[in-house]
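Repro case for the chain-ordering regression, as requested:
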Amino acid sequence: MLNVFASAPPRGDASLGEQLLQRLHLDGQLLLALIVLSLAGLAILYGASNQDTGMVYRQAVRVALSFVVLLAVAQISPQFLRQWSPWLFALGLMLLLFTLHSGHIGRGAQRWLSLGVVRFQPSEIMKIAVPMMVAWYLHDRPLPPNWKQLLPLAAMIFIPVLLVAIEPDLGTALLILSAGAFAVFLAGLRLRVILLIAVALAIATPIVWHFMHVYQRERLLTFLDPQRDPLGAGYHIIQSQIAIGSGGMFGKGWLHGSQSQLDFLPESSTDFIYAVLGEQFGFIGAIVLLALYGFIIARSLLIALRAQDTYSRLLAGAITMALFTYVFINSGMVSGILPVVGVPLPLVSYGGSSLVTLMAGFGMLMSIHSHRKLLAT
Amino acid sequence: MARIRIRNEWLERHQFTLRVIVVGSIGLILLLAVVTRLFYLQIVSHEHYVTLAEGNRLRNEPVMPPRGLIYDRNGVLLAENRPSYELDIIPEQVPDLDATLKALAKVIDIRPQDLKQFDDLLKTKKPFQPLPIRSNLSDAEVAHFAVDRQDFPGVDIRATLARYYPLGPVTAHVIGYTGIISQDELARLDPNQYTSTSQVGKIGIEGAYESLLHGSTGVRQVEADAQGRTVRVVSYTPPVPGKNLYLSIDVRLQEAAEKALGSNSGAVVAIDPRDGGVLALVSTPSFDPNLFIGGISPADFSKLNTDPLQPLFNRALRGQYPPGSTIKPFLALAALNYKVVDPFKNLMCPGYLYVPPNPHPYRDWKAGGHGEIDLPNAITQSCDVYFYTVALKLGIDRIHDYLTTQLGFGEPSGIDLMGERDGVVPSPLWKRQTLHQPWYLGDLVIVGIGQGYLLVTPLQLADGVAAIAMHGERFVPQLLHAIGDPLSGKITDTQAHALPPVQESYASAWNIVVQAMKNVVATWEGTAHNIGIGAKYSIAGKTGTAQVYRKRLGVFGEESEADIPKALRDNALFIAFAPVNDPRIAVAVEVDHGGGGGGTAAPIARAVMDEYLLHEINPAPKQP
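-- result from build under test --
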């Protein structure tokens, strides 16, 4: 049925459905996987929000709108995306600066920018704009990037990362960093450069530590080890592990998790929704969802491998690996192997801002996939 | 240029493919790490986390058992539970405890001792348990708090049951009272049983039968959410209510004794000699035990505690008095047992007795003496000289042995109340150990008239006279008459605890002593003939007048007892039982500084016996 490595059928004997998908510049397997994931996400949300139909309805509307975004972006050709990459990056950077200057303060951080009726986070744009910019910068240069190119590459990644980090929104900063870094890595950054960066970081850490104030060190330690603060940040992770662990092999059943239903699990509809899944659907449910992400990531990587130009390849690979970073950080944080970082579970967590960016990214993957075929003919 | 681009294109593709394989592999490994972690949490440690989740979800709430009720022998309610409102604080749910307490004090009268009790509880109880800050709220206080309730998260009014003693002071020294559990008590009690109960029996029946009255705490297992709100009840084990207690006490006698004592301080103990059941146990002045419920205010307590008449002091149980002449019948029994006197052989009483080497005579209460007198008349007329002689003939060792081992003086009677005092039956050994002094002959002489070191409690006197009434049969005095189970409705009578009978080797000793005691009341020579007048039943008694102040009338210019300050007057005592041939009640009366036993104490005993014997009622059917 679904085969990641299936090659596209010849256009001539394509069925009506396949013809329609091609006309719409869509990849059927990826689209189906995304739809399944979105529907599963809504079902989990229903169980995580104490059967809050209003919440599920609002999320369903967002999901539907994000699919429209996907469809729209899929129609844009990779060449057009490439040409507009620096402009989008510049716009994102300006909005980011503007947000820092006069944005809305939501939950203790300046992230939101109001555009009349819609509020959005400019940092979301950067999740896409940074890999686009890196891919644009490298698309007509011989790869792997040489020493001279590292400085501009570092600037186009770290300036937005730092701007987002001081909002502060460490989760998003981390995702932007990973998207940019994956793009550079996929471009073939030499192993010795990678090692050099690693060594430089290892040397810099104690020096930076030395110049930090005591309270800053404390903050960093709490950030790295929530168990230092069991009633604050630690409470989340402890309750989350109880929820997952008590789920067992098959879970307590949909809508039957005491941790989530009785509000012991904080942020159960947003960042910690994976724990709800683990409690209600058990090990099996948690594995099935990871497998679904695995399929989406594998299919997207295949699209990247098949891409015919540097820009498409790097962009597709970076977007895919950013999705992987999302999934790994969230599932790792919820299961207690990573510190608590505010990263949602893509397409499952309640919230609209990251959903649109994600779907725009998938739209680009679809575009890269479908426009390649048109070019090949 | 173009060729280089094509070569680069191929190389780049190859490079990219390699890199995708690398990131894909790393990604797969990392996701497998998450899977491993999930396996550990959900399969390996599943049980552990289930336990933690259940601990989150389920909470055991203790359910207070209703405390057992206390009735008298006729089914009159002596201790009940009344609905009452208590103000509880759940410390965990209060954002700022100090500020909340300050704000609460503006709405509700919170006394310093309430705060102290609350602080004590705060140290021992868990922060999610409701702790009482005030009990017995008035309706007005409940209304005031209800208006401002939203300002006090974690503070709530709880409908509970508070102890109430309908007869108040009349039964205070028998029933005792309950109070808030102290730190020391908490260490003694089963903590699982006292999670829901803040009150415990302190003294009296409430204290002695705490375990029967308390019952057993029930458990309501509830599902609670993260805020601690109850979502639903999962299981419910109802509490087992405490047992209802029926006392042998007859409140009519309590009231009659209290009325007869009037403003005097003193004690009355009445016992059914046939089984040891205590019919009345009165100590005046008394106090209102209801003041102690929910914690007595310092002002009230200090008033009770500093009162010179000591209303909190249970004279019947803890008052140790010289028995005076009431000891004479008991010494007569000892003298007959050891055959040191011939009861019908006269002895000359000139009104004094010289006991060498003491140059001063031991005087008789009757100036000029009783003349020639035998044992029965020496009891009837309370001849002191006769009993000085008896004491000398018996010697202190035999007196000590007989009074302690046979009649129960000098040791606790074993009544089912706490805090009973032993009294003192002196002996050379006792004097050496306690006072570090040698024993003198003079110490022995005055024991013959119940003075000196000899001390008894009113309860011991009543217990002793009951033994005389039964011609030596003895029972442990007991207040608990029957136990009612409120669930099954079954009432179980308690057993009388018989003691070995009093040893008496002189065959007619009992008849001689009883007849002599009957004559105390029935003849004109008797020291209590005043109470024999108009009695519809036969009474046997013995008066006692115990010196608390060494004096001789006239020395300080006093003409009569009335001229002596009350605090220095003699204690009046009287022991009696009735009817003589079929004894149903034995009484001991002690009136502090009451003067003569015949004049003050005997009429009180008569009033109690009248109430019992003349107005005997058929006990009402007991309520379980």
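Ordering looks correct now. The domain at 251-282+319-614 of chain B is CATH 3.40.710.10 (Beta-lactamase).
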